[in-house]
Give the backbone structure.
Amino acid sequence: MKKLLALTMIVSLFFVAACSSSTGGNQGGNNVAPTNNSGNNNIQEPGNAVSEDDDLVPEPGASLVIWDANNQVGFIEEMAKEFEQQYGVSVKFEEVGNTDQVNKLMTDGPAGLAADVLLFPHDHLGKGAEAGLLLPNTAYEDEIISENADKTVKAVSYDGILYGYPRSVETYALIYNKDIIADAPETMDEIFAFAETFADPSKNKYAFAWELQQFYYNFAFLASQGGYMFGDDNTNSADIGLNNEGAVKGATLLAEIKEKLLPINTGDIDFDIKKGLFLDGSLALDINGPWAIADYKANGINFGIAPLPKVDGNPMTSFSGVQAYYVNAYSQYPQAAQLLARFLSTKEAQMKNYEMNSLMPSNEEVANDPVVAEDEVIKGFLAQFNNSTPMPSIPEMDSVWNPITSAITEIWNDGKDPKTALDNAVNQIKESIGAN
């Protein structure tokens, strides 16, 4: 039996080598051909990264698709024209929300329906990497490490492997209309006092708002007095701090804001509604991120950026993240895709994205450019960035969003006891993590 097994292994290895030698027309063996899996010819096998010593050349006949949010259309289309001129590879933009991409890739990737290049926040990396959906970034590893801060490189790496091509760092802050309120309030008490002279909910006129249904923003209120996501720098999923004493105080503050400042339900305000209110002067103070700035500038709003208001003397801790490009491991054109991901994340590209969309660059050289460093908008967001905590990138984070969002909705819309709602959410999170 041992001899038979050894002979079988030798024959198998010889067959693999022969098959490999027959693919000489593919650069680096990276073209991915559909394979027959249970009769489904659309199922694909992941591609392979290229070693640092190999020069990337687009595969013959390559054409690419990139997923990104609609606020990046202008930038992507302009860069796509330059990329096609340089490499002869066309690029098609498809709008897919950044936080939806990894879940969509789970099914569309193996089926050969997903984009070649994706753009999503680093907290989704763990799930994608563990599922084998993403191509490691070996071709440009040295450049990424040398051009970006250590914490940025760490954010787009998982389990010691670099996957991302960093584009920007981000957090949200307080955006205020200077024509309505000359100086940004520094505390929540000041906001409550200002609202008494400005707000009129019966006329859709509000002092202070954010996307109420998004835990991404609501986290800041829970964290302002001691709540947290996971222990050990957001790596220990057994330690959840979303129902501790500080988190309950933060949720109680949310209920007070509902009563005194925003007597509407969470579903009554989203990004577009809030933008409209801010643009027509019906909203004075907006919690938002760099992605909102282009519209505010285009409409001539006289705005400023400031840190989030303090609560009981404590700075509000926002979520922060690193937005990066990633390459679909199932791409039929992995070399062209890696070239595009790099092309969109170079210092030149980041400077252009800053100019077009006011994004905070991850590239240190761009961040230190006088034009960027002296930008009042960037200064304002960086002031809040110093009081931020990176979103967890462990896969267990995926179990958090729905339960905690439901809990805050119950507290806000239904007046449910904060402690009860948060305890219930944490129990659901623990059960979900345990089930996985």
Observations:
- The chain is about 45% helix and 15% strand.
- The chain has two domains: 28-170+322-377, 172-320+392-435.
- Residues 1-42 have pLDDT under 50 and may be disordered.
